[in-house]
Amino acid sequence: MKKLWIILLAVAMVLSIAACGTTENTTAAPKPASLTYWYWADNTEQSDLMQNIVKSFNETNTMKITVTAEEYPWNSGGFTDTIFTAIMGGGGPDMSTFKLQAGKMFAANKLLADMTTHVDAWGDKAQLNDGIWTIMKNATGDNTLSILPWTLEALYVYYRPSYFEQAGITKTPATFTEFLEAIEKCTMDTNNDGKTDIYGFGMRGAGGGQEHLGAFLYAYGATWDDLTTPQAVEGYKAYLNLFEEGFVPESSPNAAFAEIVDGFKTGLTAMVIHHIGSSKTWIDTFGEDVDAFVVPGSDKGQWTAAGDTELVVYEQSENKAAAFEFYKYMTTGEGGTTWFKTTGKGLGTNNVKATPEFTSNRFQAVAAASLQIAGVLPPTDTIAEFSNSVWAGTNQQALLGQITAEKALEIMNKAIHGD
Question: pLDDT per residue over 392-414, tens digit each?
């Protein structure tokens, strides 16, 4: 009997060792690994910057981790579809840049790795406030840390002070009514030829513009929870009125990021909504003739979108610990510092705050103030489909008068919340 007990004990030990060998120790030092990383870039400068940061990581990390960075176009959300299709088909990367709005779709298909253990063991975790981690958890709906925060940029209004002066505007708008009035006043025919030379606002009527619409909804007392209320209709009609009255460019129904940037950069528009990421471009282009203010609200509400770009590790990655080492480098490490110094994007971590680019950028204060009223679109199961497929076409029809404001909002509401 004693001999049998010894044999059983030995077998149990062998099985235990074998089982341990099949599970990655998430807190152990990462193994040497070759990882693929997919990302999008807003422009050529950011594309080159990302490649240089990855090259630096490969050359300086002592863990023999090699990252291969592959760029894919954002394409108004098409990037998300590209990765989803690739992974579902048996391909795709170890990690990628990511949008919160896609969290539930990817989590529902069990494509994202739960990085909770890695995050909890990370010494720099506390540099990111609890609210940021909560946003990440809420985006997947399963209370896991499957999305890793990288940049959160609250949207605010950039404007040209010289245009305000031409229009007779002496102070920046403090209410949403004043904001609409400023848009109207800044729509000008400067050479008296009967044609508009400057439009008050660069409307993003196509890809990504849903984030701008939120400011109108909340200022009229609506929320994203129900777009069919009288308040939502009133807010949306105020938005559509800008196009109907000619206060925004005629190309607005088809305008996405590139178009509104080009409009502001060439002097076609007096105001544009974007985040800190474009501040360097505007300073380089206009010098002192550019400033900013928080998106105004009313006594009924105030809201702005927090544009985000996060990082995720996919469940299919065979070395998640190595992938997390790259994430750390991209946030509190040298990669995060380099990215911020060039783009202005980050999470306000200690390495970022220590840079002269942070302390000297006059737009950082506006960005920080805007975060106090910022939010994200509701992380429903269908929010990615709404943003990528439904928003632009529906809004274009409403702008062109092909469907009513009520009908457009009904379609949007169903796309966000389902039946």
Answer: 999 999 999 999 999 999 999 99
